[in-house]
Automatic annotation (TrEMBL):
<dbReference type="InterPro" id="IPR011335">
    <property type="entry name" value="Restrct_endonuc-II-like"/>
</dbReference>
<protein>
    <recommendedName>
        <fullName>DUF559 domain-containing protein</fullName>
    </recommendedName>
</protein>
Amino acid sequence: MEDIIIGTEAVANGVVTAHELRRWYRPIYRNVHAPTNRVITLRDRTVGAWLFSRRCGIVTGLAAAALHGSSWVDTDIDIELVYKFPRAPRGIVARAERIEADEWQVLNGLPVATPARTAFDLGRFQRHDTLGRLDALMRAEPYSTDDVLMLTQRYKGARGVALLKAVLPFVDGGAESPRESWWRRLVIESGFPIPATQITVRDDYRRHVRTLDFGWEEYQVALEYDGDQHQADRAQYLKDRRVMPVLRQLGWHVITVVKEDDPIHVIVRLREAMVARGWRGSIEIPRYAYAYSRHLAELAFRARKLG
């Protein structure tokens, strides 16, 4: 498949000779080879992992999410398979779990977990950026959270189900990056109402002014996350400078954050803005926000010492 071959099988079938295999191919996994001049992609590694399972494994996790179209998936991730390996090689994570016929599909020649089953596995095993991963999958290939919850009933007591159930109510395909999902989860877990995503703001003439990342239309308060690419785009920077005064004239209070912003400071600013607009709730900042705040402080301290 796509020039990724099982070495011994290809030699036995006359596809290549043993000499050609050694000269023109290199191993991805034990006995699974790709052409030496090929730049190995995530799909190549996924195909290789499936071939290593003797075409019996079913792709799940981040590799499945990428095959469904999810963004923000690195090429060097471990390939997760539902399959029982005596000893999986480095780069493959095998889980000897049940998977029913309605939980996988053939996608471009590969057996891949359905979006709902992929979400079920992502939510249980992705300990970092869990919500971001589920949001990205929802954005690429919408799935029913009810279907995911059905799987939690089908596999009661399965590892990680409690983690999945905790994050599933917050899944929203409107998020455009994992870090945006991180900030949205932080504000929810701090005690703010669940925000809407991708809020369209129009002026008095119904002309489109801006689509805000997430916020509360009732209070006209929003939070915008600017990633590295956004900050490096000069045209976007100038556009932002022009649109922010317009948003203020329309009554919107927009807080812009970057990854270097202290989450505790942001939450305090957000609470002040919400209270000024009539919100009467209370907040309790999660522990991980304090941990990230300390991490930022340590980075700043090291930068000052180096400077």
